[in-house]
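stage 2 :: seqdesign
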């Protein structure tokens, strides 16, 4: 298990556009494994490669803790509906903000074998996909947050 350093708001890498992944190299496989490890270790529900300083269109998501999802070169094909709710980001520690997102998305992406697939998602998973795809285009949720960000109550300070 290898953890990578999570880049935080203000780091220039978070505002750049990530590049298409063209093949599944050993380097990319290791990156994906490290991204899952880093996301789970940080108790996150999603992580995009630029958040660990790598400008590649790779996203990992797990909104339940039991459904790891890898999206390579994801494209949102359709959106519908609307949801407004609280959102956080591992690159914006200790904060949440209210963001309105589509309630339903249809996505096309490649898997670890670089095979294209399509999937549909709703509610929290739809929110996570939109949030992570935004990262690949250099956008943070704070740009879309309605009103000021809120502080997360610091009940999780057992770790140094
Ligand atoms: Ni994020």
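stage 2 :: out
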């Amino acid at each position: 298990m290898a953890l990578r350093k999570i880049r935080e708001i203000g780091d220039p890498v978070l505002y750049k556009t990530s590049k298409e992944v063209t093949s599944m190299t050993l380097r990319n496989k290791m990156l994906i494994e490290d991204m899952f490890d880093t996301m789970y270790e940080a108790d996150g529900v999603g992580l995009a490669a630029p958040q660990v300083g790598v400008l590649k269109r790779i996203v990992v998501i797990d909104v339940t803790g039991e459904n790891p999802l890898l999206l390579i070169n994801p494209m949102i094909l359709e959106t519908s509906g609307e949801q407004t709710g609280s959102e956080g980001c591992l690159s914006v520690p200790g904060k949440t903000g209210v963001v309105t997102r589509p309630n339903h998305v249809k996505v096309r992406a490649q898997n670890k074998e670089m095979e294209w697939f399509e999937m549909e998602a709703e509610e929290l998973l739809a929110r996570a996909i939109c949030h992570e795809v935004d990262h690949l285009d250099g956008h943070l949720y704070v740009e879309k947050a309605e009103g000021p960000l809120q502080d997360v109550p610091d009940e999780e300070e057992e770790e140094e």
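stage 3 :: structure notes
- Residues 26-41 form the longest helix (16 residues).
- The chain has a mean pLDDT of 95.
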